[in-house]
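re: that chain from earlier
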Amino acid sequence: MVDVYRCPNCFGPLTAGTDSLRCDAENIDYPVVDQIADFMRGAYYDQFDENTVLTAEHRLALERENDGAIARINDFYLPRIGTNGLRILDAGCGNGISVDLLTAAGHDAYGIDSSALRRWQWRERVHRDRLAVADGAKLPFADAFFQVMLCSGVLEHVGVEEIGGDEYRVKPLPNRDAVRRAFLAGLLRVLTPGGTLYLDFPNGAFPIDFWHNTRGGSARFHSIREGFLPTFAEVVQLAYDLDPRITVTAVSPNGRLRFRQVRQHWYGRAFVLPMQLLFASMHHLPRLARSSLNPFLVIRLTKP
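^ sequence. v structure.
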């Protein structure tokens, strides 16, 4: 671990203890439990007690998530990345299955997430020593460490306040753009020159959100000025604020989605075939991939 991880505060080297990684410069010990390093110092994205008994609904949701994670890597990203033994980070890796899959495919893969729930889940992973609890804006890696980075369904949750209850509600924070810019800068810092970062998330320019609601797959109509889901233009602006030489390209999400949850609704079943045809056409009409007709953005950033 000391060969891979760095202090997320000063990016300096760490020394190994019995059950921790220590930064002497900052006088901080980062715990290592079940081979999983934790750099969050208690500031997790969520609150989760490992003694909590999950409801049947929560367990079903986590099981469904496994299928989605496998499809995301095997059906969409591996065909684009190839099997050339690249060093890859999945930032916001969720249940961590992606790291096992990428490693099995011959890559030097790692994953991070800022969730206490995920830390508990990762005990089931084969390569849990390659998983760390960390903040995407303060990654515990050296500069230019990764050749490829994946970041799925994360950027929209940065710089906003999400409110649970009977109805899903969300509002942007006053510093949303600054926080998102810092998050993107943190990802790009650990990417090699010429390296590729993939971001994917629901398109804020599309007026229906099928991913964020109290019931999975249900339609949430929203204003395009809501300030929650990013748009392609917003990502371009964030990237150019950091370095105008960054190449930003929207690619077709064809194969990225399985539409399993939205098929539970009649409108979802009617929606699937037209969307699949639209996604397939984006290979030939790339401007559609960044337009308001596309409900789900996949954006490729290439570092100069």
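The mean pLDDT is 92.
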